[in-house]
Each structure stands twice: as C-alpha cells, then as structure tokens.
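Narrative of activities, Objective 1.

The group set out to show that a structural description can be obtained from nothing but a protein's sequence at a throughput compatible with the screening campaign. Below is one input-output pair from the validation batch, recorded exactly as produced.
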Amino acid sequence: MTILPILLAITAILMLCWLLFTLAIYALPLFIGVTAGVFAYQTGAGWPGAILIGALAAAVTLVAGNMLLTSARHPMARLAVAMLFVAPAAISGYYATHGIVRHTAPSEAWQLAFSIIGAIAVGGTAFVRVTQLSAARQPGGNPPHG
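Output recorded for this entry:
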C-alpha cells in the first residue's frame, strides 16, 4: 500500500510536466489576458467583464503573434516574434521545475542547475512548437508531424 501513493505522485508530476510542455506556447497570451482582465476588474468592469476582456486580449495576442510569424519575411523578425512567445514559456519552465526540484534536491546549487535545465527544455519545446505552427500556416509550409 505504500507504493501506490509514490506511483500516484510520480504520475501526477509526469502529467503536470506534459501539461507544461503542451501549454508552454500559450504563456504569453495567458499573461497578457490575465493582466488585461485584472486591469479591467480594477477599473470596475466586474467579474464577467474582466473575464471577457482577458479572454479577448489573450485571443488577440495569439492571433496577432501567429499573423506576425506567418507574414514576416525576414528570419530575424520571425525569430524576434518567436522569442516573445518563448521567453515567458522558459520562465514558466524555470519556476515549474524549481517548484518540483525544491522538494527533492537539498542543495540550492543543484536546484538552480535543474531549474535552468527545465527552463531550457520548456523554452526549446515552445520554440519548436511556435515555429511548427507558423510553418504549417505559411503557403507551402510543411504541416507538423505527430
């Protein structure tokens, strides 16, 4: 019976990591949506208005980012737009990894090392996903496999 909680904890951590990697490219729209929603709520829009404004701001951010990625001709412009989506994903990867590692590694140096590795992994995954999404939407682009 003591092995079951351990297996459930490992499964929960793996599921949360999978969720983090899957949703990492939406960190920037989420951040902008939450910021706009909080601002709308503080200016008197109420809960329904804040949720609507936040969802609208997140959707506009996601659509604008995709449009910029697909319409930008210069590779450096595409890289700059992709980095706007990758940077918040890497930051969230750092803090998510640090939250997990904080409970398992006693040394702060190892916590920092694993957190940086997590940030690189999540940021790299977000970069690949953002570039695959833009390649799939471009005329003549190859759709992502898998």
